[in-house]
Amino acid sequence: MILANYHTHTKFCDGLEMPKTYVREAIRLNMKTLGFSAHAPLPFHCPCTLPIEKYEEYKNVISQLKNEFSDSIEILCGLEIDYIPDLWKELEGSIVPSSLDYFVGSIHFIDTYPDGTRWTIDGSNERFRKGWEEIFAKDSSAVITKLFKYTREMISVMKPSIIGHFDKIKVQNSKKCIIDENDGLYRAEVLETLQAIEASDCVVEVNTRGVYRRNEAELYPSFWILELMAKMNIPVVINSDAHRASELVNHFEYAADKLRKAGFKSRVYLTGGEWFSVKL
Ligand SMILES: [Zn+2]
Ligand SMILES: [Zn+2]
Q: What is the pLDDT of residues 123-167, one digit of tens each?
């Protein structure tokens, strides 16, 4: 299996180790390519993101590693950038995504409390429920509609290289009553979003983090979504969303097996600035 991972967080954001530790482990694993994707700086307080004043240092450190280990592995400098409609222009200006090798586009924030505090769909279930009750008056349909509308907007406006954890919101299913993947509206929103992806140049990541961190059977995206994607020939890349070096290629074989079962014949990987396809 050609091993490559493009979703990697280090101490520069909410990961646990310094980039070099990941590079050493990636070489030990005989990985072809390792892409770093710090959570991009945001113009409001968020403990998980790379602070803007560290952005240059981040790029320099990755660039040094690129040179230092160029005989053993391909290192890429990317970011995981949040798409937040009202902030995108400002963010784009401060980050300049074109200076990166690639970037993952993800959605973690879809609304704010009256005092302006951003609400994340990605945190604990308690925090999720608070926003669901106070901002959305428990209207799950409104949450779903907004999330996937923003995802489609992200595809057309931000044009990420990779779409990150497409249906991460399902993590909130631990207390079953909120997000129902079998709901007709949910399925319709997913389908409409896949059609937007089909018409774009974006690659969708198959993210293994929920499987190895939370013991979930389902990847992001869920199996039924992967089946639809296979029929639509949407390209997929396997990513671990690693926050420590030991997680770099966790459950990649599991993901490859699921992809084959969903009808995929190949997956893609990025090398030398281009996407290549490899048989599963
Ligand atoms: Zn993270
Ligand atoms: Zn994320």
A: 888 999 999 999 999 999 999 999 999 999 999 999 999 999 999
161 lies in some domain: yes
Q: Is residue 252 part of a domain?
A: yes
Task: List 205's β-bridge partners, or say none.
Answer: 237
Instruction: Among 55-59, 93-97, 248-252, 271-275, name the one with the lowest average pLDDT.
Output: 93-97
- Pull the structure tokens for residue 152: 């489609």
Kindly write down the DSSP assignment for every residue of 223-251, as one continuous string: HHHHHHHHHTT--EEEE--BSSGGGTTTT
Q: Which of 275, 280, 249, 255 is nearest to 27 (CA)?
A: 249
CA of 164 to the centre of ligand 2 (A): 7
pLDDT of residue 177: 65
Residues of the chain with pLDDT > 90, as a percent, come to: 92
**CA of 276 relative to ligand 2 center, distance in Å:** 24
Report the separation in Å between the CA atom of 9 and the middle of ligand 2, taken as the mean of its atom positions.
10
Which domain does 241 fall in, by range?
Answer: 4-105+148-174+184-279
- Centre of ligand 2 from the C-alpha of residue 266, in Å: 24
Give the distance (Å) from ligand 1 centre to CA of residue 239. Answer: 13
Long-range (24+ apart) CB contacts under 8 A made by 43-47 are 43/87, 43/90, 43/91, 43/94, 44/118, 46/118, 47/14
Domain containing residue 270: CATH number: 3.20.20.140
Give the Å distance between the CA of 127 and the centre of ligand 1.
17
